[in-house]
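User: 2-alkenal reductase (NAD(P)(+)), Opuntia streptacantha:
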Amino acid sequence: MKILRVEVHLMFMLLFSYQFYVLAEKNDHQERRTYIVHMDKSHMPESFTDHHEWYHASLKSAVDTAEMLYAYNSIIHGFSTRLTEEEAELLQGQPGILALLPEIRYQLHTTRTPEFLGLGRSERLLPTSTSEGDVIIGVLDTGVWPESKSYDDTGLGPVPSRWKGECEQGTNFSSSNCNRKIIGARFFCKGYEATLGPIDESVENRSPRDDDGHGTHTSTTAAGSTVTGASLFGYASGVARGMASHARIAAYKVCWQGGCFSTDILAAMEKAIEDGVDIMSMSIGGSISDYSRDTVAIGAFSAMAKGIFVSCSAGNSGPDSGTLSNVAPWITTVGAGTLDRDFPAYVILGNGKNFTGTSLYSGKPLPKKLLPFVYAGRASNVTGGNLCMSDSLEPKSVAGKIVVCDRGGNSRVQKGIVVKKAGGVGMILTNTEAYGEELVADAHLVPAASLGQKAGDEIKKYISSDNDARATIGFSGTQLGVQPSPVVAAFSSRGPNPITQEILKPDLIAPGVNILAGWTGKIGPTGLEDDTRHISFNIISGTSMSCPHVSGLAALVKAAHPEWSPAAIKSALMTTAYTAYNNGKMILDVATGLPATPFDYGAGHVDPVAALDPGLVYDASVDDYIDFLCALNYSSELIKQTTGRQFTCSSKAYSIQDLNYPSFSVAFETASETGLGRKAVSTVKYTRTLTNVGKPANYKASVWPQPAKVQIKVVPELLSFSTVNEKKSFTVTFTANSMPSGTTSYAHLTWSDGKHTVTSPIAITWT
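Assistant: Predicted structure for 2-alkenal reductase (NAD(P)(+)):
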């Protein structure tokens, strides 16, 4: 028997040797790229006793010179490697290969927040520091700057005994850089280096140390320790603390100067699961693809199956519709809203008009007089001179003047540097139609203010009408209590879900504009070479900032309810979110100035105190998500590729509408008029199950507002719960006449027992 196995093994190794010999010269001249090779472990020949040996043999049988970058053991079965296109095709045809996934380059989606969220006013309702300290948040990002005060471990107990992670050593980073706050730190760069070459360690630390600032900012937003006297040049001064300030942080550096590569991300997700994180926070995004080919979705499924809550940023491609990333239903997808804090800057014109914008400029102010100013488009001889690109301004036209630059094309702060180098003394940064009235504060290196499109158009009219146009810029620090707040950030990516429209995304929004948190000591607040300032905290914006807010808040819920599943935690955060201000008016969208919709904010703005006691939750298991994939007509192979599980869909009727999701997205097809001149009527039924996580109570359903175009019927309308964890199901039937394609309608379904309000958004579209 042993001899037979050896013979089979040798035959396997030699099977394609002749073919590869013929291809060898040809492949030497082909460009190689990185692939994740997803294998079906159940197909491993009996001659192999170890799957790593099988992976190696499979690879070597395809190309003798290729090497494995990573071997994946649990999150998927397989490995990553570099192959030519022909080698990839040949390997794809071998037994046991589920899929070859080409490397994807992901990008980062780039205080007062606890008070704004009500955490400061509700300490007695929060979990104890001991239970919170048992929760571990894994942050996949650019690493950590361990010297930040936000990583101080004073008052924290011993590291949880179940923790299996470690503090990896590397350039300027040792095990002593970890403590009882940063309990783990790893770095992953094999995929990055395979594509872009070795990391230049004179520029970038080949270690968990954060050279960018993004990872330090996101991790301290989620779980930074309390720091008094925090600010950025005096702006946003006060106490800085993460959402779960006693939770532990495990850093997984997967993002480098050239981006974040899917092979590295998948390896980091696998290691985070093995290490024992409870929450996985990922403020990164890439191209949209089907769940079976989405690295983050595949990794997140394995994490969810292990009881890990996965939070991802929705993306910064708003306000255009259908621009979301990270949309798998087992991921919590987070959009961005504003705080009630601003940093006003004032532009005063020579014609007496004043405009309010925003700025974080902290240097020497402009003289107390009106100065000449000019529009960049008239101070340049190059195409696109209005954008103040490098070397685009004529010094003779801008010397001693304030320059008006249009937003776009290069970084906002870089424009001010261009103005300064050309001899200008200040900058007014004006939005174009693409950015509307959205204002993002920046730590400019010259006196500068950002203004919305309307103000920008007024200023340009003034310059055109007056040959001696003059202006000045003033700054007034930090303003609190700004209303209305929150509003949906214009940059926050929007629904509908581009992969499965019946799953409403984003799930919710959280603070993501002008957020103060810890920063790296490597670079200044703008990250530009010309910026030599060193800071401990920075103020930046993006769904990258809103994601760790939800990650930290999920840690609070996990600490209070350690037995809850990731789906139950998501449900608690979603069904207690709010969509209206205290005055009853709906949350606004800054991009339009109009009320936002569930495609903008999902279930609404997160309310962490309410989430600790939601009353009821929409729970979901691994089997529920597999049924969802069956409803998408996934084959057994695609299910295994996505979930790592062997499953064959049965002959029963599967329905996307039956996934127990805390929101409703209803898609009606537009039908042509019938011969009788009447429009076809469509009916869609959704089934949901609620689990009681509170005291015995009777819940009554209500739909608000009642949409004129759709009839919505809930059966039954009353649910009675007598015990904890009792489950009750109901159906929601939507009946509507055909409408023109693109028509939308919105509503909410609320279950209330008089104390709790369990609310789900409803988005209805005709396609």
